[in-house]
Structure formats: C-alpha cells, structure tokens
Amino acid sequence: MKVKIVNTSNKGVSFARNLGINQPSGQYLLFVDSDDELSINALKYLSIMLNKKDRDLILFGFSLTGDNNRKNDTSILKSIANQNTDCKMNILKSILSTKNNILGYVWRAVYSLDFIKKNNIFFETHLKISEDYLFLLQSVEHSNNLFVITEEFYKYNLGETSMSNKFVPTLLNDMVWVNNWIESNILTVYPQFFVGFNCLVANTYIRYEQNAIRNKEENFMLKYREIKLNKRKYNFQRSINQVISHLDKFDFKSKIGVILFRIHLDIVYELLFNIKERKN
C-alpha cells in the first residue's frame, strides 16, 4: 500500500478535504476523522464490492462510542436495503428527515473520485457546521448508481473533541445557508420532500436554541432576546406552525420543543435546556 502525506497550513477541515479531492491519483475517496477509525478489513471488503461493479458511491453503517445516549442508523440502512423501490429516493427522503433517518456524515460512504470531480462536488469552505451533510446530500442527489450496505465499517468516537456538545458561533448562519441550498436545489426537483424540509427547518431552530444556550459569554436574558430576534428574522415560526401536525416525524424531546415553540413558550424550553447544561 502506498501512502502519500500532504502537509498544509491549517485552513479548516473543508479546505483539507478539498485538497485531498484534488490530488491527481486514486480511483476512490474515503474520509476518516482524526479521532475515529475504520473497522478491521473495511478497506478490503469495500475494494471487493467496488471491483464487482463500479459505483458512484457506497453508503455503509457505523458503530458509535463515547456517548451511550446517541444511536447509529444501522436499522434504517437495513430497512432501505431490503426495499425493492428506488434506492436513491429512499436515501434522499431519509437524509431529509428528522426521525429514523440516515445521518449525514461524509465519512460513512466511499465515493468514486471521477464521479465527484465530474459533478464538481466540493466542500463549502465557509461552513463550519453541516459541510459534511451537504457534501453527502449533493453526492446522493447527483448519483445514478449508488449502493447501500449495512456493515458497520466506521467507528465514530464521540470524545471530548467532538463538536456535538460545544458552542459554535457560526451554527445558525451555516445551517440556514444549507437549508436555503436544499430549498433551491432539492425541493425544486423533489417537491414531495416539502414536509421533511420544514421539519429540518424546525430542527434547525431547536439546534440553534441549544447552541445559543451553550454560549458562556452571554447571560441568559441576552441569549433569550437574541434567540427571539433570530426566530423572527429567519421566520422559523412559519415552519413550526406547519410541522405541528407532523409531530410523529420528531423524537420525543424535539416533539416537546416544537409544541412549546408553537404556543410561543420558547423561554420554557430555554430554561429547561439551561438547567440541563448546568448539570452537565
């Protein structure tokens, strides 16, 4: 096995990944984060599958360590793999869902490098959040030849370096940017995903509220006023009003949030989440 190491100044994960995509050698593309690892023989099995038939991408499962409250999506992959309907449409529908969905991690697939370059799929370097979700979504949307396997080839470690529970200053702008991209590029082609999209927007507001509460540089009332202003600025209430009749598409905790937001009791959610964060 030949290994090529490319050194560069720290310009962010998206810049580094794009640099890797632009390397002139190799047929396939696989991403591994620094604190994660591939399972034993993952590359061997993926190579065998790719040699049997060329694919734009192969989507596979992952195991998860470091947080007993988080789950993977192997059961969802099995459900899709067992269906005889359009695989691409089922994957798109699942990625654009908020419950029982395929999680949009870029490292959970192997990609044809020719396919990626032909369709000009690269990471948006200005995004700090959801850049990998967008890359996977674009890859699935452009693909005409994808495959789903249920083997858990990737080991995802949710350690202290994970961004999942940290305050991210750009989270709101990044997630809104991605939502706007989905609305312009996916919904115009697949209007049947409209309900799922509105659930994503409502989920964006939930993620934003949680992220804002994690900001230790501001007191609670400043956070409350800022959240209220941004809720109005991005018209989150419209999507919340539309998804109130689709609560089955949310998990229990998110469902409680949507109900509180619908009756304008956002501050109750914020107080409860603030108490939870202090305990942690």
Overview of the structural elements:
The structure is a single chain. This protein is an alpha+beta fold and 280 residues long. It has 2 domains: 13-157, Spore Coat Polysaccharide Biosynthesis Protein SpsA, Chain A (Alpha-Beta Complex); 171-279, no CATH class. It contains 12 helices and 5 strands. It has helices spanning 13-21, 42-52, 74-81, 87-95, 113-118, 131-142, 171-185, 194-213, 220-233, 236-243, 252-262, 266-279; strands spanning 28-30, 37-38, 57-65, 109-112, 146-157. It has a 5-stranded mixed sheet with strand order 1-4-3-5-2. Helix 8 packs across helix 10 (236-243). The longest helix has 20 residues, at 194-213. It starts with 12 loop residues before the first helix and ends with a helix. 29% of the residues are buried. The mean pLDDT is 91. GO terms for molecular function: hexosyltransferase activity. Pfam families: Glycos_transf_2 (PF00535). Residues 4-77 form the Glycosyltransferase 2-like domain. It comes from Lactococcus lactis. This is EpsI.
